[in-house]
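Problem statement: downstream parser choked on a complex file, so we are re-checking the raw output for the nicotinamide-adenine-dinucleotide run. The parser issue turned out to be on our end (a line-ending mismatch), but while we're here, posting the original submission so the record is complete.
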Amino acid sequence: MRCLTERVLVIGLGLIGGSLASALRAHRLCHTVVGYDRDPEELATGLRLGVIDEAADNMLAEAAIADVIVLAVPVKAIEAVLAELKPVLRPETILTDVGSVKGNVVKAAERLFGEVPARFIPGHPIAGSEKSGITAADATLFEHHKVILTPLPQSDREALTLIARMWQAVGAEVLQMDVARHDEVLAATSHLPHLLAFSLVDTLAREQDCTEIFRYAASGFRDFTRVAASDPTMWHDIGLANKTAILQKIDEFSAGVQRLRDAIETEESQAMLGIFTRAKAAREHFS
Ligand code: NAD
Protein backbone atom coordinates (compact mmCIF):
# COMPACT_ATOMS: atom_id res chain seq x y z
CA MET A 1 0.00 0.00 0.00
CA ARG A 2 1.45 3.39 -0.93
CA CYS A 3 1.54 6.28 1.53
CA LEU A 4 -1.86 7.90 2.04
CA THR A 5 -0.44 11.15 3.38
CA GLU A 6 2.68 12.80 4.81
CA ARG A 7 2.21 13.62 8.50
CA VAL A 8 -0.36 12.12 10.85
CA LEU A 9 -0.71 13.50 14.38
CA VAL A 10 -2.35 11.15 16.90
CA ILE A 11 -3.54 13.03 19.99
CA GLY A 12 -4.06 10.66 22.95
CA LEU A 13 -1.54 7.84 22.81
CA GLY A 14 -3.41 5.19 24.77
CA LEU A 15 -4.82 1.83 23.68
CA ILE A 16 -6.67 3.08 20.58
CA GLY A 17 -4.38 5.98 19.57
CA GLY A 18 -1.27 3.86 20.17
CA SER A 19 -2.70 0.90 18.23
CA LEU A 20 -3.61 3.10 15.26
CA ALA A 21 -0.21 4.84 15.32
CA SER A 22 1.51 1.44 15.40
CA ALA A 23 -0.61 0.13 12.54
CA LEU A 24 0.02 3.26 10.44
CA ARG A 25 3.76 2.72 10.89
CA ALA A 26 3.61 -1.04 10.32
CA HIS A 27 1.75 -0.57 7.02
CA ARG A 28 3.81 2.52 6.05
CA LEU A 29 0.64 4.50 5.45
CA CYS A 30 2.26 7.89 5.96
CA HIS A 31 5.77 9.31 6.09
CA THR A 32 5.70 10.38 9.74
CA VAL A 33 3.48 9.37 12.64
CA VAL A 34 3.65 11.99 15.39
CA GLY A 35 2.17 11.35 18.82
CA TYR A 36 0.98 13.76 21.47
CA ASP A 37 -0.31 12.90 24.93
CA ARG A 38 -0.86 15.09 27.96
CA ASP A 39 0.91 12.40 29.97
CA PRO A 40 4.64 12.74 29.09
CA GLU A 41 5.32 9.18 30.27
CA GLU A 42 2.85 7.68 27.79
CA LEU A 43 4.47 9.75 25.04
CA ALA A 44 8.01 8.69 26.01
CA THR A 45 6.91 5.04 26.16
CA GLY A 46 5.31 5.38 22.72
CA LEU A 47 8.58 6.63 21.27
CA ARG A 48 10.63 3.97 23.05
CA LEU A 49 8.33 1.15 21.87
CA GLY A 50 8.44 2.43 18.28
CA VAL A 51 4.70 3.16 18.21
CA ILE A 52 5.40 6.64 16.80
CA ASP A 53 8.19 8.22 14.74
CA GLU A 54 8.19 11.49 16.68
CA ALA A 55 6.81 12.77 19.98
CA ALA A 56 5.32 16.27 19.93
CA ASP A 57 6.12 18.50 22.91
CA ASN A 58 3.79 21.17 21.64
CA MET A 59 0.43 19.88 20.40
CA LEU A 60 -0.56 23.13 18.66
CA ALA A 61 2.72 23.59 16.78
CA GLU A 62 2.40 20.03 15.48
CA ALA A 63 -1.32 20.37 14.70
CA ALA A 64 -0.52 23.41 12.54
CA ILE A 65 1.63 21.32 10.17
CA ALA A 66 -0.11 17.90 10.30
CA ASP A 67 -2.01 16.65 7.25
CA VAL A 68 -4.28 14.36 9.27
CA ILE A 69 -5.13 14.67 12.98
CA VAL A 70 -6.66 11.74 14.89
CA LEU A 71 -8.30 12.58 18.22
CA ALA A 72 -7.91 9.47 20.41
CA VAL A 73 -8.57 11.07 23.79
CA PRO A 74 -11.41 10.10 26.18
CA VAL A 75 -14.89 11.08 25.01
CA LYS A 76 -15.21 13.92 27.53
CA ALA A 77 -11.86 15.47 26.55
CA ILE A 78 -12.68 15.77 22.83
CA GLU A 79 -14.43 19.17 23.06
CA ALA A 80 -11.57 20.78 25.03
CA VAL A 81 -8.96 19.44 22.58
CA LEU A 82 -11.01 20.64 19.58
CA ALA A 83 -11.28 24.09 21.18
CA GLU A 84 -7.50 24.24 21.60
CA LEU A 85 -6.91 23.11 18.01
CA LYS A 86 -9.41 25.50 16.41
CA PRO A 87 -7.10 28.54 16.05
CA VAL A 88 -4.28 26.55 14.41
CA LEU A 89 -6.24 24.22 12.09
CA ARG A 90 -5.48 24.81 8.41
CA PRO A 91 -8.49 24.53 6.05
CA GLU A 92 -6.88 21.55 4.26
CA THR A 93 -6.15 19.55 7.45
CA ILE A 94 -8.25 16.39 7.77
CA LEU A 95 -9.53 15.64 11.24
CA THR A 96 -11.10 12.49 12.68
CA ASP A 97 -11.77 10.96 16.07
CA VAL A 98 -12.25 7.50 17.58
CA GLY A 99 -14.73 8.33 20.36
CA SER A 100 -17.20 5.63 21.43
CA VAL A 101 -20.13 8.08 21.26
CA LYS A 102 -20.71 10.27 18.21
CA GLY A 103 -23.64 12.61 19.07
CA ASN A 104 -21.64 14.46 21.73
CA VAL A 105 -18.62 14.89 19.41
CA VAL A 106 -20.80 16.29 16.63
CA LYS A 107 -22.56 18.66 19.07
CA ALA A 108 -19.20 19.80 20.47
CA ALA A 109 -17.93 20.56 16.94
CA GLU A 110 -21.16 22.45 16.15
CA ARG A 111 -20.82 24.54 19.32
CA LEU A 112 -17.22 25.42 18.46
CA PHE A 113 -17.33 25.85 14.68
CA GLY A 114 -21.02 26.67 13.96
CA GLU A 115 -21.28 23.40 11.97
CA VAL A 116 -19.07 20.32 11.85
CA PRO A 117 -16.14 21.28 9.59
CA ALA A 118 -16.33 19.54 6.19
CA ARG A 119 -12.93 17.91 6.72
CA PHE A 120 -13.78 16.53 10.18
CA ILE A 121 -14.96 12.94 9.73
CA PRO A 122 -16.23 11.45 13.03
CA GLY A 123 -15.36 7.77 13.47
CA HIS A 124 -15.49 4.85 15.90
CA PRO A 125 -13.45 1.64 15.66
CA ILE A 126 -15.46 -1.29 17.05
CA ALA A 127 -12.35 -2.85 18.48
CA GLY A 128 -10.63 -2.59 21.80
CA SER A 129 -10.29 -4.39 25.07
CA GLU A 130 -10.63 -3.94 28.80
CA LYS A 131 -7.00 -2.78 28.85
CA SER A 132 -5.90 0.82 28.44
CA GLY A 133 -2.72 2.80 27.95
CA ILE A 134 0.13 2.73 25.47
CA THR A 135 1.58 -0.55 26.75
CA ALA A 136 -1.60 -2.31 25.57
CA ALA A 137 -1.26 -0.86 22.03
CA ASP A 138 -1.37 -3.48 19.28
CA ALA A 139 -0.86 -2.82 15.55
CA THR A 140 -3.23 -5.69 14.68
CA LEU A 141 -6.09 -4.48 16.93
CA PHE A 142 -8.32 -3.32 14.07
CA GLU A 143 -7.83 -6.32 11.75
CA HIS A 144 -11.18 -7.98 10.92
CA HIS A 145 -13.04 -5.43 13.02
CA LYS A 146 -15.56 -2.84 11.94
CA VAL A 147 -15.03 0.91 11.96
CA ILE A 148 -18.12 3.11 11.78
CA LEU A 149 -17.77 6.54 10.17
CA THR A 150 -20.61 9.02 10.70
CA PRO A 151 -20.11 11.66 7.97
CA LEU A 152 -22.53 14.58 7.67
CA PRO A 153 -24.14 16.05 4.54
CA GLN A 154 -21.42 18.73 4.35
CA SER A 155 -18.55 16.22 4.75
CA ASP A 156 -15.78 16.53 2.17
CA ARG A 157 -15.61 13.46 -0.14
CA GLU A 158 -11.81 13.51 -0.31
CA ALA A 159 -11.48 13.59 3.50
CA LEU A 160 -14.06 10.81 3.89
CA THR A 161 -12.26 8.65 1.32
CA LEU A 162 -8.88 9.15 2.97
CA ILE A 163 -10.14 8.26 6.47
CA ALA A 164 -12.00 5.21 5.10
CA ARG A 165 -8.87 4.07 3.22
CA MET A 166 -6.74 4.56 6.34
CA TRP A 167 -8.95 2.19 8.35
CA GLN A 168 -9.22 -0.33 5.51
CA ALA A 169 -5.44 -0.33 5.15
CA VAL A 170 -5.04 -1.33 8.83
CA GLY A 171 -7.38 -4.28 8.24
CA ALA A 172 -10.79 -2.91 9.23
CA GLU A 173 -14.14 -3.06 7.46
CA VAL A 174 -15.53 0.46 7.13
CA LEU A 175 -19.26 1.17 7.47
CA GLN A 176 -21.11 4.46 7.39
CA MET A 177 -23.98 5.31 9.69
CA ASP A 178 -26.10 8.24 10.75
CA VAL A 179 -24.87 9.81 14.03
CA ALA A 180 -28.07 9.13 16.03
CA ARG A 181 -28.33 5.57 14.70
CA HIS A 182 -24.70 4.92 15.73
CA ASP A 183 -25.40 6.00 19.30
CA GLU A 184 -28.60 3.89 19.50
CA VAL A 185 -26.92 0.77 18.10
CA LEU A 186 -23.83 1.11 20.30
CA ALA A 187 -25.98 1.74 23.39
CA ALA A 188 -27.52 -1.70 22.76
CA THR A 189 -24.50 -3.71 21.64
CA SER A 190 -21.66 -2.21 23.67
CA HIS A 191 -22.69 0.30 26.31
CA LEU A 192 -25.51 -1.76 27.90
CA PRO A 193 -23.41 -4.99 28.15
CA HIS A 194 -20.51 -3.08 29.73
CA LEU A 195 -22.80 -1.37 32.24
CA LEU A 196 -24.50 -4.69 33.10
CA ALA A 197 -21.12 -6.34 33.70
CA PHE A 198 -20.03 -3.49 35.99
CA SER A 199 -23.35 -3.62 37.83
CA LEU A 200 -23.36 -7.42 38.24
CA VAL A 201 -19.81 -7.56 39.59
CA ASP A 202 -20.43 -4.57 41.87
CA THR A 203 -23.64 -6.17 43.21
CA LEU A 204 -21.88 -9.47 43.95
CA ALA A 205 -18.78 -7.78 45.36
CA ARG A 206 -20.96 -6.04 47.96
CA GLU A 207 -21.93 -9.39 49.47
CA GLN A 208 -19.95 -10.24 52.59
CA ASP A 209 -18.62 -13.56 51.35
CA CYS A 210 -17.91 -12.30 47.83
CA THR A 211 -14.38 -13.80 47.67
CA GLU A 212 -16.00 -17.18 48.22
CA ILE A 213 -18.49 -16.52 45.41
CA PHE A 214 -15.82 -15.35 42.95
CA ARG A 215 -13.63 -18.37 43.81
CA TYR A 216 -16.34 -20.70 42.50
CA ALA A 217 -17.14 -18.62 39.43
CA ALA A 218 -17.07 -20.70 36.25
CA SER A 219 -16.03 -19.71 32.75
CA GLY A 220 -19.52 -18.34 31.94
CA PHE A 221 -19.12 -15.77 34.69
CA ARG A 222 -15.65 -14.88 33.43
CA ASP A 223 -16.90 -14.44 29.84
CA PHE A 224 -19.86 -12.34 30.93
CA THR A 225 -17.91 -10.08 33.27
CA ARG A 226 -14.53 -9.66 31.50
CA VAL A 227 -15.41 -6.13 30.46
CA ALA A 228 -16.07 -5.10 34.09
CA ALA A 229 -12.28 -4.73 34.29
CA SER A 230 -12.47 -1.81 31.80
CA ASP A 231 -11.40 1.72 32.70
CA PRO A 232 -14.00 3.28 35.06
CA THR A 233 -13.37 6.86 33.87
CA MET A 234 -13.85 5.92 30.23
CA TRP A 235 -17.19 4.26 31.04
CA HIS A 236 -18.27 7.16 33.23
CA ASP A 237 -17.71 9.45 30.22
CA ILE A 238 -19.57 7.13 27.83
CA GLY A 239 -22.48 6.74 30.29
CA LEU A 240 -23.01 10.49 30.38
CA ALA A 241 -22.19 11.21 26.73
CA ASN A 242 -24.79 8.70 25.47
CA LYS A 243 -27.23 9.14 28.35
CA THR A 244 -30.55 9.19 26.42
CA ALA A 245 -29.93 6.07 24.34
CA ILE A 246 -28.41 4.20 27.30
CA LEU A 247 -31.32 5.00 29.62
CA GLN A 248 -33.74 3.71 26.99
CA LYS A 249 -31.80 0.43 26.68
CA ILE A 250 -31.57 0.05 30.47
CA ASP A 251 -35.36 0.50 30.69
CA GLU A 252 -35.96 -2.10 27.94
CA PHE A 253 -33.55 -4.49 29.63
CA SER A 254 -35.14 -3.94 33.06
CA ALA A 255 -38.57 -4.74 31.58
CA GLY A 256 -37.10 -7.94 30.09
CA VAL A 257 -35.58 -9.01 33.43
CA GLN A 258 -38.88 -8.27 35.15
CA ARG A 259 -40.72 -10.51 32.62
CA LEU A 260 -38.25 -13.29 33.38
CA ARG A 261 -38.57 -12.72 37.12
CA ASP A 262 -42.38 -12.91 36.89
CA ALA A 263 -42.19 -16.11 34.85
CA ILE A 264 -39.90 -17.75 37.42
CA GLU A 265 -42.02 -16.57 40.35
CA THR A 266 -45.23 -17.90 38.85
CA GLU A 267 -43.47 -20.99 37.45
CA GLU A 268 -44.65 -20.27 33.91
CA SER A 269 -42.48 -22.74 32.07
CA GLN A 270 -43.85 -21.72 28.65
CA ALA A 271 -42.83 -18.09 29.22
CA MET A 272 -39.39 -19.07 30.56
CA LEU A 273 -38.68 -21.49 27.71
CA GLY A 274 -39.94 -18.88 25.22
CA ILE A 275 -37.38 -16.33 26.46
CA PHE A 276 -34.50 -18.83 26.50
CA THR A 277 -35.36 -20.38 23.11
CA ARG A 278 -35.67 -17.03 21.34
CA ALA A 279 -32.41 -15.82 22.90
CA LYS A 280 -30.56 -19.04 21.99
CA ALA A 281 -31.73 -18.83 18.36
CA ALA A 282 -30.74 -15.15 18.11
CA ARG A 283 -27.32 -15.76 19.70
CA GLU A 284 -26.60 -18.75 17.42
CA HIS A 285 -27.67 -16.75 14.39
CA PHE A 286 -25.14 -13.96 14.95
CA SER A 287 -22.14 -16.04 16.11
P1 NAD B 1 -6.67 5.23 27.02
O1 NAD B 1 -6.94 5.64 28.41
O2 NAD B 1 -5.91 3.98 26.77
O3 NAD B 1 -5.93 6.43 26.25
C1 NAD B 1 -6.37 7.76 26.29
C2 NAD B 1 -5.12 8.65 26.25
O4 NAD B 1 -5.53 10.01 26.09
C3 NAD B 1 -4.29 8.59 27.54
O5 NAD B 1 -2.94 8.28 27.22
C4 NAD B 1 -4.42 10.00 28.14
O6 NAD B 1 -3.25 10.42 28.81
C5 NAD B 1 -4.69 10.83 26.90
N1 NAD B 1 -5.38 12.08 27.16
C6 NAD B 1 -6.46 12.30 27.96
N2 NAD B 1 -6.84 13.59 27.89
C7 NAD B 1 -6.00 14.19 27.02
C8 NAD B 1 -5.88 15.52 26.52
N3 NAD B 1 -6.72 16.48 26.91
N4 NAD B 1 -4.88 15.79 25.63
C9 NAD B 1 -4.02 14.82 25.23
N5 NAD B 1 -4.08 13.54 25.68
C10 NAD B 1 -5.07 13.24 26.54
O7 NAD B 1 -8.10 5.20 26.30
P2 NAD B 1 -8.53 4.42 24.96
O8 NAD B 1 -9.15 3.14 25.35
O9 NAD B 1 -7.43 4.44 23.98
O10 NAD B 1 -9.73 5.36 24.49
C11 NAD B 1 -9.48 6.50 23.69
C12 NAD B 1 -10.74 6.82 22.89
O11 NAD B 1 -11.09 5.68 22.10
C13 NAD B 1 -11.95 7.14 23.76
O12 NAD B 1 -12.65 8.23 23.18
C14 NAD B 1 -12.78 5.88 23.69
O13 NAD B 1 -14.17 6.16 23.81
C15 NAD B 1 -12.45 5.35 22.31
N6 NAD B 1 -12.58 3.90 22.12
C16 NAD B 1 -12.11 3.04 23.09
C17 NAD B 1 -12.24 1.67 22.88
C18 NAD B 1 -11.73 0.68 23.90
O14 NAD B 1 -12.11 -0.49 23.88
N7 NAD B 1 -10.88 1.08 24.81
C19 NAD B 1 -12.83 1.18 21.69
C20 NAD B 1 -13.24 2.10 20.72
C21 NAD B 1 -13.12 3.46 20.94
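For whoever reads this later: The first strand starts at residue 5 and ends at 11.
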